[in-house]
Please model this.
Amino acid sequence: MKVEQAKQIASKAIEQLSQALETGHSETLREYLAAMARFHRYSLHNIMLIASQRPDAIHVAGFQTWKQLGRFVKKGAKGILILAPILLRRETQPDNREPETETSAIRFRAVYVFDVIDTDGKPLPELGNAQGDPSGHTQRLKDFIASRGIQLEYSDAIYPAQGQCSPGKIVLLPGQSAAEEFATLAHETGQLCGAC
Model:
């Protein structure tokens, strides 16, 4: 029953998005694209389920995952219904009596996830920021890049990325701290030179 309910919610969300686009309301599309960016590891179906039930969701996880992160779901919190894949394995034996082989089938079951706002407990781990003083290492890295014939530019157009590389070119976001600039430059150099 819950699987069918999840399918109905997703179908309704897709229909509402389609209707909004037909009437020229692109804000709805922007909201779904923002949800896709936040939940890039989820299927489109589950993104539609999350966005239609909780448009303001930031970070979702199941009850046990929150528990493993040292957080607990608040009493009375309303879960967000999504579909989780399950793998069914069964043993088969062909008629010619060869050794048994395993086959699997994928099914889905309805599960609930909770937004971080619905939890309390330990703070979530944060992404690390580059710190410290790279001293002359940044200039040495720039000299290395120039010696390889790689063009280095700075541009606001790449925001929110801090750096980008393409064959023969590295672009950095201006205004980074010295440590962030060095870390980004080292990363992009590694990406570019690793492809050589």
Observations:
- Helices lie at 2-22, 26-38, 44-53, 63-68, 137-147, 178-194.
- The chain has a mean pLDDT of 85.
- Strands lie at 60-62, 71-73, 80-92, 101-115, 119-121, 151-154, 163-166, 169-172.
